[in-house]
Amino acid sequence: AGGTFTLSLVFPTTYPFKPPQIKFVTPVYHPNVKTDTGDICADLIADGWGPTLNVRHCAQLLTAMMENPEPDHPLEADIAQLLREKPKEFEKKAKAYTKEHAKSDGKKK
Length: 109
Hints:
Elements (H helix, E strand, L loop, with lengths): L6 E4 L10 E4 L17 H5 L8 H13 L9 H9 L1 H15 L8
Antiparallel strand pairs: 1-2
Helix pairs in contact: 3-4
């Protein structure tokens, strides 16, 4: 909460039959996002994808992912472990990471 995150969406030539590739440009502290690359779990968008889905659908999935981190299917095992075992510490680290990397105007420090 309190940050603005920039994402990259790359649409394949087969869109809308295949989903866009999505990654975070702004660093984010989240068990379902690779810290070093910003990649998200590809299955998040690909599972159940069909040609009637669109960017709004992707935004809704990303919002849900950010609001409800999934520690049981992580891309970052250490972050997922912290979330499971010490949720208050996870929240503190996530807030600090957001404050450092995701200024409210969307520009990196």
